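User: Okay, second chain of the day. Same drill as before: sequence in, structure tokens out.
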Amino acid sequence: MFKFRTLAPLAKGLLGLAASFALTSAAEAARTPNFVLIFMDDQGYQDVGVFGSKTIKTPNLDNMAKEGMKFTDFYSLAPVCSPSRAGLMTGCYPPRVGITGVLFPRHNIGLNPEETTIAEILKTKGYATAAVGKWHIGHLPKFLPTNHGFDSYFGIPYSNDMDGVKGKDRNLDRAWIERDISPWNVPLLRNTKEIERPVNQNTIIERYTQEAQQFIHSNKDKPFFLYMPHTMPHIPLFVSDKFYTKDPKKAYIRTIEEIDYSIGQVLKTLRETGVDDNTVVIFTSDNGPWHLKLRHHGGSALPLRGAKFSTWEGGMRVPTIMRWPGKIPAGSVCSEVAAACDILPTFAKLAKAELPKRKIDGKNIWRLMSGKKDAKSPHKQFYYYRGAGLRAVRSGDWKLHIGGGNKKQQKEGIKPTLTLYNLADDIGETTDVAAANQKIVQRLYKRALAFDKSLKADARPAGEVKTAG
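Assistant: Same drill. Structure tokens below.
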């Protein structure tokens, strides 16, 4: 009798404990994943070890690819900063949301608050959200991250070469050697408040990393979204003491290597906080590298043609790696076409959230990411915009470039130049095969014109702050 009375509470306790474990396991299984989105600024296609770099050491990114998936045909949405970021945040081609050019401190426009961002989508499912780094889709309070679904913001609101100081020597080699930030009077913001000007860019990568780590620690017990758009390797280039060398010819190399170290620290924090297995991490870039005239301050897009500012592959095809242990196949490679606009609908799918009510261009690419057998790109065509102009279209391996054709030329009856490349045979876009493939040329051109007309008929305006007078 004694034993029975003693064991009964024990059995009840064990049953309760088992039930608790079952509930915990069910809750963990039901919990949607965390998201970490690392967005580089002007990093070239080749500037990662697993994408072919022989000079830049990126052990953390290389290991991320080993543990996840490398995307060889992933595209930014513009060959310059602001439009590519607007497209990323909204899942749209930039002209659809009215951001088609680079924004400067003099501008009074930005991403319209009526647009729905990735952060706002995830907030509907209780996500904690933070943006750490370069925003560049509106520097006025109305357009900053905290008015676009982010709980907090820490970073530089636009490019780190803006707000130049009149009369200051902005020689990049000299600035690197002397570690002189003074020619660039850019601010550092905490939410909407300016906390430092000029920001000490020598320590900014390090401080971004610490901010990201703190956010992960603070939110490890709830779903979170960390958007980490690095300020560099946009020029001017700066690094912390640990990565500094007096040789300016190594400026770009050391900058990428410090950011790779930063990524390693973020991944380490995910492991230390126990959330690594339930976190999707994506690494990609806003556009291609600066032109070669910048010598050692710019990167490489080889074997692609072109660089930043262009709609050749080197301007918009960007190095991309995705990792989610146990969900994204380790050591895998995806060569299907995907783009930055696909991140919003994919995150929405994984978070079990609804898509924006307004039309978007992105597609859910989870089948590609998860390595489903015979998974194909959801894009029958991908369109390359420069400014408001449609400059190229890709369908499968075929890419049609549309040269000229502006309003003045159209009035004068000048037809655009159409050149065709087979990217499977000619990744460097060296040989125009339009003459031998006129049916393909006309088919792609017709589709491009129809899409552009449709997009612009449905285009929405950028946000604007009215100025006095």
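Residues 32-369 form a domain with the Alkaline Phosphatase, subunit A fold (CATH 3.40.720.10).

User: Thanks, on to the next one.
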